Amino acid sequence: MADPVLTLDHLGVTLRGRDGSVTEVTADVSLEVAPREFVSIVGPSGSGKTTLLKAASGLRDPTVGAVRFAGSPVEGVPSGISVVFQEYNKSLFPWLSIGKNVAMGARRLAPPARAEHVRDALHKVGLDGFASRYPWELSGGMQQRAALARALVSDPQLLMMDEPFASVDALTRGHLEDVVADLWERSSFAALMVTHDVGEAVYLSDRVLVLSARPSRVLAEITIDLPRPRTQSHTRQLPRFVELEAQVLERVEEAGRMAVGID
User: Is the overall model pTM greater than 0.90, yes or no?
Assistant: First the structure.
């Protein structure tokens, strides 16, 4: 088996408020992501999913434990990791064209290579011909495609996504799920996604990890043994999909009950 591209080893994150208060968000989270694997993290509201993703990507230092990317300790965001955030309208620079926004993800490349990578990334997400447009001229779904293009323009080993489709309508959400699934199928990156949508996690993933309430730990790991490629119209109708979705939802609800002390 290939060495994992990402390893979290007994990770814990404690946050300090401006008033001096201390909140233990994650207590003891260990996980691995293999090359070309798609892993999703779900859990009850407030379980620290986004905080965990920030620590895993190098955007936040863990309080305890270790993060390793491609076998090396993570100190800051490694060049092989790209992150897509939920609020596309805040992650894109409104004063830059779509092409220049995407080019921000390829700053290490020489200008000729950068331009080629930008064209290729826009093509992959279906935004040919939109390089000169500005974010405010595009729909929400198209803006999130541009954010995806910027994340993929550097050919990352690992794509991390923090509820990437939560800010778009249901129809656009399903379409963007298929865009990501197709990009992942045709590329070589691994993916780690945080989502509150259980069906989305099952639809896209090889494995789904369920976090407990905070201070969180991994409560369950569920293998998604659905055939690929997957489609919205077919995959979500499969009895096995329905079974897996119910299984994941049951564990998320269990974590929620534990948070409020209900047996």
Answer: yes
